[in-house]
Amino acid sequence: MNTTTAINAYNKVGNESGVIGADPHELVAMLFQGALLAIANARKEMVRKETAAKGKSISRAIAIIGEGLNASLNKSAGGELAQNLSSLYEYMVRRLVAANLTNDVTVLDEVARLLNELTEAWGAIRPEVMNTAPRTGATANPKRVRATA
């Protein structure tokens, strides 16, 4: 086993372990971090003119935002806030597609800035969530987290 394979295996086990023990709030935070990492990678690959890698990283960010963050919203319970977040996530996906087509790093930076703001806001509500919700890490479904926003 070469070093890269070992590192990848270690990271995979670490990520899976983190998901298994995470509560729904932590899972959403992981999605934010995953999307930000994918965008940061896409930015580096765009600058290096690594087209295939850039496309893969942007596709990963789009999947995390569209199929992870947006799909985790409980739009019936979350009301207007959930609808607004859904619209923002859809906007981010459209912007990432545009960044991929035009190789515009400023668009990647815009989406990263929006995600950073949401990450900070999400982190700020953590104490409130911990005081009002029981820890459900063992019973949370990591494939479909229903965050009421």
Description:
With 149 residues, the protein is an all-alpha fold. The protein has a single domain, classed as Four Helix Bundle (Hemerythrin (Met), subunit A), CATH 1.20.120. It has helices spanning 3-20, 24-47, 51-72, 75-102, 105-124, 126-132. Residues 1-14 and 135-149 have low confidence and may be disordered.
CATH topology: Four Helix Bundle (Hemerythrin (Met), subunit A)
- Count the E strands: 0
Mean pLDDT: 81
Going by CATH, the architecture would be Up-down Bundle
Structural class: mainly alpha
The number of domains is: 1
Beta-strand content: under 5%
Supply the number of helical segments.
6
The termini sit apart by 44 Å
Q: Would you identify the CATH H-level superfamily?
A: Flagellar protein FliS
Stretches where pLDDT is under 50 for at least 5 consecutive residues are 1-14, 135-149
**Helicity range of the residues?**
over 70%
Helix and strand run = HHHHHH
Largest sheet: none
As an assembly, this protein is single chain
The geometry reads as globular
- State the name of the first-level CATH class: Mainly Alpha
Radius of gyration: 16 Å
